[in-house]
Amino acid sequence: MTSHSSLHDTTMTMGATSAVALLLIALVWLAYLSGVWRTRRQKPWPWWRTLLFTAGCATLAVAFWPSLMHAAHQDVRMHMVVHLLLGMFAPLGLVFATPMTLLLRNLPSGGGRRLVRFLGTWPMRVLTHPVTAAILDIGGMYLLYMTSLYAHSLHTPWLSNVLHLHFVISGALFTWAIAGPDPAPHRPGWRTRMAVLFIAMAAHATLGKLLYAFGFPRGTGADIEELQQAAVWMYYWGDLAEAVLVAVLMLAWLRRRRRMARPAGAASDMRPS
Amino acid sequence: MAVQPPVAQDVRRTMIAAILLGIGFMAAIDEIIFHQLLAWHHFIDTGSTALALASDGILHTMELVLFIVGAFMMIELHGRRAQAPGYRGPGFLLGMGGFQTFDGIVDHKILGLHQVRYVEHVWLYDIAWIGAGLILLAIGWKLLQRARQGQATSQH
User: Any stretches that span the bilayer, and where are they (chain B) (predicted)?
Assistant: First the structure.
């Protein structure tokens, strides 16, 4: 097979991937909207949650847009933009739109109970633990960029599709495990989640510097300047998405402290501390 | 005569929050002005070891997280009117000066992550960099003494 025809194949496959991805995104978005519409007579669903979900879906759609996908295939900097959109920014919108809560509202009570029981089984609890989520998310990035996996994915359409899916799922899983607003009875405490978030952020920042200093990912034929620009974008834009997670955890801390302060203030005459 | 401070003032937490904000503010100045706008600093010197890169990654994350934590601590203190007014300035300056001095000595000289500027006589820049940190520390210390004596401007 000549290189020209394999390039043509890749282009065709990417077009198909784009079409399927955009269709799926549209279906998920419509499902969310219909869920909101069906239960509108119960407690009204906050409009900003719908807005967040729409923004998350729009971010995914931009990342899967054919022209951006082609550019990302040619240029490691554009790949990094797609990676940031799929793995870091889209999950913020999707997770903080609490799709699980909406799903539970729409399920009949038996189905809801089954879903909650399924999420409480030990394999699901291991999978959704913040440590597992961090290893899948950040560990996956080390594997992708520090080995030949990335270069390999450029010539292997199915691998490239799996990686895109992995970005979205592991990014959403990490965001949900650390700071997801959906009720989660088995989630570890605030301190554990803050500690895992800190370690994951430090590992992400270190990866950015490693890519820059040692010219990873290798075997792509990209200039060192392009690789370094991609690393710098990953470092600073990654910071922004992670800072949002820190702020959400701190907001939870602030609320809990204020809740605790109120009854304690009333009882302070009896129990001076 | 100085007005008696309200009983509920939380000096310790005000100091901690102000120091965290100072560290984060100085780190932000470093990233925005010296790395991005002036482009004096390199993102990282390519000769750095993986260990130096990891310690840089941890430090950078600490700056970012501590800044957000400091901001939320300040909001929480403000909400229950427990900020100790005379201690915010000194804490902020001590945080700024502490970070600047640490950055100048550990990051630039010991770990060798990057230099202040890539010119001849870089030691002149190093002296200015670390000197600026020490001056901020000295001013912060002086203001802290005044706050302890109840003489800070914001305490009247």
Answer: 15-38, 50-75, 122-144
